[in-house]
């Protein structure tokens, strides 16, 4: 009376999706699609300014010199 449905794990679904993309888009197309779809989150520019501050050219040059030693 009831129909059995095969339940796939999320990993199985992910693998099947990637296989379908490769079949229809090729490897390069799949990679480009995945890069396009995975843009991340947040605002990198704001985060970068928070991490680095706003150094002037002399501060940047000093840091480069420190790294060279």
Number of strands: 0
Distance between the termini: 77 Å
Strand residue percentage = under 5%
Tell me about the biggest sheet? none
Report mean pLDDT, rounded to a whole number: 88
Q: What is the SS-derived class?
A: mainly alpha
Helical residue percent band? over 70%
As for the number of domains, it is 1
Order of helices and strands: HHH
Number of helices: 3
Q: Would you kindly provide a written description of the structure presented here, covering whatever features stand out?
A:
This protein has 69 residues and is mainly α. The protein has one domain (10-68). Helix content is 71%, strand content 0%. The protein contains three helices and no strands. The chain has helices spanning 10-37, 44-52, 57-68. The radius of gyration is 23 Å and the shape is elongated. The mean pLDDT is 88.
Task: Record keyword descriptors for this entry.
69 residues; single chain; 3 helices; mainly alpha
Q: Helices, strands, pairings?
A:
Layout: H1 10-37, H2 44-52, H3 57-68
Short description:
By secondary structure, the chain is an all-alpha fold.
């Amino acid at each position: 009376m009831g129909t059995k449905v095969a339940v796939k794990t999320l990993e199985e679904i992910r693998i099947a999706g990637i296989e379908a993309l490769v079949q229809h888009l090729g490897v390069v197309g799949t990679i480009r699609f995945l890069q396009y779809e995975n843009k991340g989150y947040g605002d990198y520019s704001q985060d970068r300014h928070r991490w680095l501050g706003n150094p002037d050219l002399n501060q940047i040059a000093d840091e480069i010199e420190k790294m060279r030693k």
